Amino acid sequence: MGMLTTHKISADLYDDSFHLIAIHSDLEDYAMAYAINSHCGLYLKRMKKDLCFDENMAFSVFDWEDEINDMYWTLIANKCETEEQMASIGLFESNVSKRIGHLVKEKKEVDYFLKVDAADETIYAEKLRAIKQIGKVITAYPLDTQKLKSKRNLIF
What we know:
3 helices; alpha+beta; 10 strands; TATA-Binding Protein; about 160 residues; single chain; two-stranded antiparallel sheet
């Protein structure tokens, strides 16, 4: 029992070491990554593996390790569209229903999360300002990771 408690505490300490920017935008994931790269001087690249959860939900992830500033950036899509084949009614009707899944369910309004590990406050603030300047970004703001119930989903 004692072991579990110790582990939990250290895991929580680790949790708090990342900053999170919520981004509202209807840009496609690759366009969002491209816009952030060109506006913020980051080099986000699509990871080989998407972030997968059950029910065929896969969320695209782009990351970049900024070795000079010792910061690690991850752009994570909060939405994923899954198509479900419904039983067809007529001869020619194939009924496909679309479902939107969310990575962080309590923040359904957020389209993307930009996760920043080991954030240098000045650089972080500067990049946040730059993201707000992107034409297709409706809004971007820091999120308090402490209050996020599903923050575990953002640790991988």
